[in-house]
Amino acid sequence: MRPYTLALPKPMIDVNGEPFLAHLLRSVAKQGVVDVILLIGYLGDHIVDFVGDGDAYGLRVRYVRDGERAMGTAGAVRRALPMLGERFLVTYGDAYLNVDYRAVVADFEQSGCGGLMTVFRWDGTGATKPNAALRGNRVTRYDKETAAPEVQYVDYGLSAFNAWAFDHIPADEPADLASVNQRLIAASQLAAFIVDHLPFEIGSPQGLEAARSFLRSPS
């Protein structure tokens, strides 16, 4: 997303007159979320300066920094575990997710699993490629590289976890959430929650314009 990201982290890209992150924070607040931990790295001070303690959004916002090297998605969550509690949701700062968080949490609790992945069924079009396979209400495969026939779903971008799912991640070592998902799958411990539409991501100019159009519409 250059040139935007030369001076700003992606969540701070302007969307309809304010940073994309402002839309995300209002969205999670409307869902009943109170505590937010922002995992920040590249140019993260821009985020801290803008959001502060989150009071303007009705949230309590705290921060965990990558430090001297990028920790990866799982490494960053592992570093934040002392602040996250026994169960928590994980999402990304560059995607607006039009999904019922309460329903996701209820499904996660009912599943008894160590984790839950929200997914949508791939329709065979667009740049997004499938990376997950399902059997019933369980994810049975998560693979970003191999286009196996049974891989017909795409990770939607909202996950739920029990803290113990990160026990195998060494402290202060980079790691990807894919490794957490794959270990849970191997133990039949990754539940699935199906969403019927794409997220609004700002990872491309086309995605940015789609997000601007959606967020411009009356809610």
Shape: globular
Which fold name is given in CATH as the topology? Answer: Spore Coat Polysaccharide Biosynthesis Protein SpsA, Chain A
Helix count from the secondary structure assignment: 7
* Residues in helix, %: 25-40%
Corresponding CATH architecture: Alpha-Beta Complex
Rg measurement, Å = 17 Å
Output the CATH class name.
Alpha Beta
Give the biggest sheet. Answer: 4 strands, mixed
In percent terms, what proportion of residues is strand? 25-35%
Q: Which structural class is indicated by helix and strand composition?
A: alpha+beta
Q: Unreliable segments (pLDDT under 50, ≥5 consecutive)? A: none
The CATH homologous superfamily is called Spore Coat Polysaccharide Biosynthesis Protein SpsA, Chain A
Average pLDDT, to the nearest integer? Answer: 89
Q: What pattern of helices and strands is seen along the backbone?
A: HEEHEHEHEEHEEEEHEEH
- How many structural domains are formed by the residues? 1
Strand order across the biggest sheet?
5-10-7-11
Ends: how far apart? 27 Å
What's the number of extended β-strand segments?
12
Note down, in words, how this protein is organized.
This protein has helices at about 5, 20-30, 45-50, 70-85, 100-110, 175-185, 205-215; strands at about 15, 20, 35-40, 60-65, 85-90, 95, 115-120, 130-135, 140, 155-160, 190-195, 200. The protein is α+β, with helices and mostly antiparallel strands. The chain has a single domain (about 5-215), classed as Spore Coat Polysaccharide Biosynthesis Protein SpsA, Chain A (Alpha-Beta Complex), CATH 3.90.550. The protein has a four-stranded mixed sheet. Helix 4 crosses helix 6. The longest helix has 13 residues, at about 70-85. The mean pLDDT is about 90.
